Amino acid sequence: MTPADRRAVITGVGAVAPGGHGREAYWDLLTAGRTATRRISLFDPAGFRSRVAAECDFDPLASGLTPQEVRRMDRAGQFAVVAAREAVADSGIELPGADPERVAVSIGSAVGCTTGLEEEYAVLSDGGRDWLVDHSYGVPHLYGYMVPSTLAVEVARQAGAEGPVALISTGCTSGLDAIGHAVQLIEEGTADVVLAGATDAPLSPITAACFDAIKATTANNDDPEHASRPFDGRRDGFVLGEGSAVMVIEELESARRRGATVYAEILGFAGRSNAFHMTGLRPDGREMAEAIRVALDRARLDPGDIDYINAHGSGTKQNDRHETAAFKRSLGQRAHEVPVSSIKSMIGHSLGAIGSLEIAACALALRHQVVPPTANLSTPDPECDLDYVPVTAREHRMDRVLSVGSGFGGFQTAMVLGRPSERRGEAA
Amino acid sequence: MSASGIRPGRRGRSVVTGIGVVAPTGIGAARHWESVLAGKSGIGRITRFDPTGYPVRVAGEVPGFRAGEQVPGRLVPQTDRFTHFALAAAEDALTDAAADPATLPEYEMAVVTASSSGGTEFGQHEMENLYQQGSSWVGAYQSIAWFYAATTGQVSIRHGMRGPCGVICGEQAGGLDALGQSRRLLDTGSRLVLSGGTDASLCPYGVVAQLSTGHLSAEDDPARAYLPFDAAASGFVPGEGGAILVVENAESARARGVPSYGELLGYAAGFDPTTDGTAARHTVLVSVIRRTLADAGLTPDAVDMVFADASGVPAEDLAEARAITEVFGPGGVPVTAPKTLTGRLYAGGAALDVATALLALSAGVIPHTAGLGRPAPGCEIDLVLDRPRQTDPRTALVLARGHGGFTSALLVGAGDRDALKR
């Protein structure tokens, strides 16, 4: 088979997200338009500029992890393993199967095991007192926290994978890029099954402090439920989140042979960089538009074929303007015709993980033919003038959807998904 | 075209046209190569902090690196030392390749680097600020210096490279995985990729975290601390630095009229899912080597030298020696590990090994593994000891294993550049 014949499809979805437990609860939250943002409880946020976040009510033991797994894994690792198990169960696939070398793993994470790393730092440095940290207080798995690759290792061990295993860390596009990497592995013939997704658990003092320092996060602390306001005129920064989505991505023919149910096919993806600024975005959306254009080209689609846009929609002043410009630049009139929504309005921005949660949402949206809304959108912004599906979910006929991500470092990624029946190059 | 942009037909040829090195063996490819040929070690007592109270006191530090001279001044306070190294190495690599990014199509240039632990020292400083003084003392640059993508982002901005950028973390194997990814990018619309990796985790928290693996050598004598495949092996020495390479598609290099150090002929990656923590199983490495050869369309007899992962942990050395023997036969291929001069450089290690292998191919020499005495029992490999071998090798296989089970291999072939031949 040539690469064009080897098509990558999603056959299982697992999610650990704020506001509920597992994939079904996640979809319920999104379609109900409920927000999972609240005052931070994972640490004492007093003294911080931004004191709200979208937290997961996550009980690792109740989620099926053993005491040793809980001890060994940082919170981000726990999320990923629980999400991976749900995805594998959902897809019905037996892993590693007859040929473990054909099983690969591609997990994204922006900040890795930063929570575990910080907690241990606080102990080893005795509350920051000692630059020469005391090694006698080190936990056995400390190095596993230092290297984010641990997150991919844990998922790979779950699967018994012996094929390529990668941890992709391109900041806030990590999730989309990790799924894109999985598609590449399948198309080039390296793997038949990839556990792909992303995880981040950044709700710790150091991460909160560094976003405070650049005023990227919201200061709307008095009304946590309505603090994440993508595309709204009163938006003032993003709300940190946490979570993980992992998907079973398979080569279509082998998925068909075992009778798997397909959520969606990944039809095209592309990444571009703005080479402009580590955190700043030019208002014209030029490089994101280019990523969208290339992703459509690879999918052999025109702008008119896109039925829904799952936006990055972080809720910062500059992002939402940048992104709106990118949609208009790449899709022309179609940008004004299709629903566009940001689920960060409900589950916050979980950095590298969010891309995987957004692709999971797209897969579920295609299956259920429902567009999740942009919560909290009530004040118009003249620079954001598309149909952002305010407040209420919408039933909508969708064959192909576009999801985009934008991150620190200047990275821009676009991915196009289609319903399983939508062959590339064929009429809908 | 496919969803990831792969075009029909055979994979294109990927060549390396520029090498930038920042390593304990020296700054710049020429100085590094001189040290390798002379067996001059860059390992010594740690000077970046006082190691007296720790069970590990030697490391491979980059000598004489002055960020203020080698990195644009504005970027020095904004980035960690691992990014300083990469910015300097990327600049050198582009100069070496005679490539001027301003004259090349912006969307056809990409950056993909390996990262192992990110801006470790920068992060420790900012956590100290946070815990000692409070959240408002954490600086604005923490958000862009600490994370693993800092290097790729800064390098792409510095050189106006707007193609698909990437960051791959596979601990010590990451450098090979980044180069493997550079080939994919060249097959999907990019013409020039800056790739490789650097690391700089020689701060107290960085080294203490590594202690938890139990794999660092507690030996105080720099000449005795890192002796892979040796009867006296006692683990490995941590190091800092790495290499950034310019990888181009062959047509682009030809159009620019530049020679290449060599070609990326084959690559494969696998994973050892066993959980005993020693990664001692050799079967995954055997499979990865065979898949790399298959990817290159070559057989074991086409390999002229092997750059070993050479962990220095006896069980891991034994597993690697067994794997090499199983594929190539007992003593069937010369094996070397110039990394005994630098220690293990994490994200930078495998990238530096590839740089060294390419320099060796262009010089027609197999560099030796300095410092070893008596081979460990059971290691039936032809280790190149004492002095380089002038055998005019045409291919080199580079092996790398990363903490947790990452296993990768990259096969490189000689190019037409002989500037460093002596």
Automatic annotation (TrEMBL), chain A:
The main enzyme category here is: transferase
Can you give the residue ranges of the Ketosynthase family 3 (KS3) domain?
5-419
Q: Coiled coil located at which positions?
A: none
InterPro entries linked: Beta-ketoacyl_synthase, Ketoacyl_synth_AS, Ketoacyl_synth_C, Ketoacyl_synth_N, PKS_Beta-ketoAc_synthase_dom, Thiolase-like
Q: State a single Gene Ontology molecular function.
A: acyltransferase activity
Q: Source organism's superkingdom?
A: Bacteria
Q: Which UniProt keywords apply?
A: Acyltransferase, Transferase
Q: What is its EC number?
A: 2.3.1.-
Return the CDD domains for the record: KAS_I_II (cd00834)
Protein family: Belongs to the thiolase-like superfamily. Beta-ketoacyl-ACP synthases family.
Q: What is this protein called?
A: Beta-ketoacyl-[acyl-carrier-protein] synthase family protein
- Organism, by scientific name, is Streptomyces prunicolor
